[in-house]
Amino acid sequence: MKICDEINTVLFEMMQNNREVILIGEDILDPYGGAFRITKGLSSSFPERVLTTPISEATIAGMSIGMALRGLYPIAEIMFGDFITLCMDQLLNHASKLKPMYNGNVVVPMIMRTPMGGGRGYGPTHSQSLEKHFLGIPFIDIVAVSLFHNVKRIFLNAYNRRRPVIIIENKLLYPMELFISSNDEVFIENMLTETGYCDVIIKNYINNTPDILIVTYGGVSRFLKTILRKMIEEEIRVVSVIIGQISPISRKSISLINTYANQCGKVLILEEGSKEFGWSAEIQGIIENRDIIINRLGSVNTIIPSNKKLEEQVLINEEKIINNILEMIRI
Amino acid sequence: MMKKEKVEKIYSLMLLIRRTEEKLLELFSRGLLNGTVHTCIGQEACAVGVMEVIDKEIDIIFSNHRAHGHFLAYSEDVYGLLAEVIGKKSGLCGGIGGSQHLHKKNFYTNGIQGGMVPIALGAAKAEKFKGSNAIVIVFLGDGTMGQGVVYESLNIASLWSLPLLFILEDNHYAQTTPKKLAHAGSFCQRAKAFDIQTEHIKVDDVLKLINVADNAVRYVRENKKPFFLHMETYRFSPHSKGDDYRNAEEIAKFKLEDPLIKLEKELSKEKVKEISENIDNMLLSILNSINNDNEMSLEELLILNN
Predict the structure, then answer these.
(1) Does this model's pTM top 0.95?
(2) Which of B 83-122 lie inside 8 A of A, CB atoms?
(3) Which domain holds residue B60?
(4) Residue B305: is its pLDDT beyond 70?
(5) What is the CATH number of the domain that holds B254?
(6) How many domains is chain B partitioned into structurally?
(7) Is residue B227 a contact partner of residue B165, using CB atoms and an 8 Å limit?
């Protein structure tokens, strides 16, 4: 099943099994079903519980918080991740704070899901990966869908967390098929974190010491299957850890990254947003062994152009990642 | 309730709010409060008038940075409020929230101007969805009317017919900025543009205000529709502390119209003295007790992260 259909299916199941689940967002009604068709069919099945709103992202966030405070479970869609900046005050000063500032006397159980990422020529304000601006906010889980993560488990765990969760969906993943079972070239393992989310470990070797560790999350995972295969030809053993909960980073994730980092001695950390002040810096910071060679790669820290060639040059891509791996192996 | 008893009750509550806040200002001056306080001295009638006519069992209140009056009129929990502002574990929110971040039962406040308005809207949607008879009340100031989310919320409240009562407590100043430097047109006209019924009242008589608030609350509850109530009031104290640049004559003029003094004239001197002494004694005894209360430890605070 395509990732977009996986998300659509889990939303349907959540609504069917829990009467308090409400969807809210812009243009999410049938027949359109949202800009990426993720909510298609849901307003026909649950007409009272799919709320299409005016273009008012801050209020979509605020209403979700209000509904969550009063016993409902809102799942908000922000049409493009670029628009999530309009929700910043509600997420940072309200969603994350209400529970702790009221000394734990209330909960704000909700999901905000949004597509991030470039590669479709949408230009500077419809292509960004802005999640880095929300990383590090306490009391909010930030989780990313990847090619290798069981999508349903991400959503169901988010629901069970009874707190605000932001789910980042890279829009290039939507039409892809999930890749969750090992094949002859790529071996997949799931590692549960203490918060109930999963990290996925993928390897292009069996029973041996890896040469390099790649740590990443979300949309960048789409390059890994090919990269791991190509590295077999180069006789480079790659282990990659794809983090599910990207903020706050779980204790299990920290220990997993350190274990493989120590085995490899070389770590490449990847993100689709610009790496400046980014997630990869935080991951670098949690690696305890100071002798390990660490490199970080993201997209170029500039505007994302609409022009196809320029966009390709700005965004992180397979070629840049492979060149980085080869350079690091040569060291 | 007989009129006399009602007047006594309303007066007691208004005086309780005023004395509590005067006490807070005194504690602040003596360096006993961490942070700041925004008092509503002069505006007590707004809080008491509205809370008098709501259904405290089911209705839901969202307030703002200037919430002590709303809170006391809602709950009369003087201990919880004072302990919270003083920073004790026995406070409403363990001393974490302080003056601007209060919660008890269906009462919620936060310190971001206008931030609670879309949240109140969501709460109203939730009540409507659940088919309850509750209404949601959100308090705004004239300064808050500069925020964009207020208009997003007015729009959706009307469009979706939500049981949300907007109460604009217009005290003429946003911190130090007078209304004339911040706002064009009329506040009620803004709400009317979204097809929301409005009412304007000058708050000089709390009993008159109670009637107007009662009509507004009934309208929202019976019609399941929003209502916008513009209350023109005045604060006698500064915005917070040491930031008062208003004309002294202007303040003096408004003090002549103090709704608390106006109500006091309905009561006997003996009764006023009795109510006042009771409140002062209660405040003293509460403050003495709070003195001995513990403060939360960092370890306890961090438990909230789980």
Answers:
(1) yes
(2) 92-94, 96-97, 101, 103, 108, 110, 112, 115-122
(3) 4-305
(4) yes
(5) 3.40.50.970
(6) 1
(7) yes
